[in-house]
Amino acid sequence: MKIVTLNANSYCGNTPTKNMENLINVISESDFDVIAFQEINQLMSSPEVPLSELDNYIPCQDRVPIRSDNYLFVIEKALRNSGQTWYWTFLPIHVGWDIYDEGVGFLTKHPIRKTTSFYVSNCRDYYNIETRMALGIQLTFNGKREWFYSCHFDKWEHPNEPFDQQWNRFVGKACNTPQPLYVMGDFNNDANVKGKAYDYILNTSNLIDTFAEAEYHDNGITVGDYIAGWTEGNHPKEMRIDFIFTNSDLPILSSEVIFNGKNFPIVSDHYGIEVTFGEKSKVFRNDKGSKLPEFSSEQVNPNPLTPNGSAGPLTTDK
Question: What pTM does this model have?
């Protein structure tokens, strides 16, 4: 099994950008099983995509308008046009730059059995960028159900939303399950800072850092230069702030930084992480014509209204 996490920091349109083209090419030629994304978006003013074009989209809420420039829709459509089948889901969390539905998502080769989404921030205002949520998908590998989470946390010392409070909410919601889980994303905290977020994660959960436990790993650096949000304060130029944690007992063969200009082109201000586990998964396909996977979300009326003032389409009708 090979899984990837990437903070894409994406602002795109209906036509793929050069970074997206590079990303699509890598995905189409690689054997990734699951890709978790953070900071992906769609313009709130873009037209909605007809349900007939969302065959491989799996909802994580009862009303999520998917728009024509949705980051994952554009990627999945390009992969579909090349003959590949990928399943995907998108969770809009808050408004970005006053014009975007911004959030997290997943792209996977395997049918999504269930989705779940819940708040990790105290803030729950869709128009406030301090609102943060986690998105989980359940997949089947080797006959076992496993959970994968895409997360985007705040810094340890955030005055309103400190990391430890957000992490405690995540652990309370996600970690009380006998099923294996993989926690993937942008944690906004450097692993090399002792006594703070990284140590707190390991001390308050049964999760391990795949980087630290891998038979092979590189330097793990996921930010190679000063980036937005890290321009103030005494921060190093290079940091390891993106992680994949797990409680799985699968052997961890390798953890490598990708999309860093050495392993694939740079596609974002964050690099990605690719973790390879020792047993290749077997997928148990959904029966043709089966019901949509189960989903649950804490969000109530999560998305802003469409430009004409009506709510988005019910994605569960497809």
Answer: 0.89
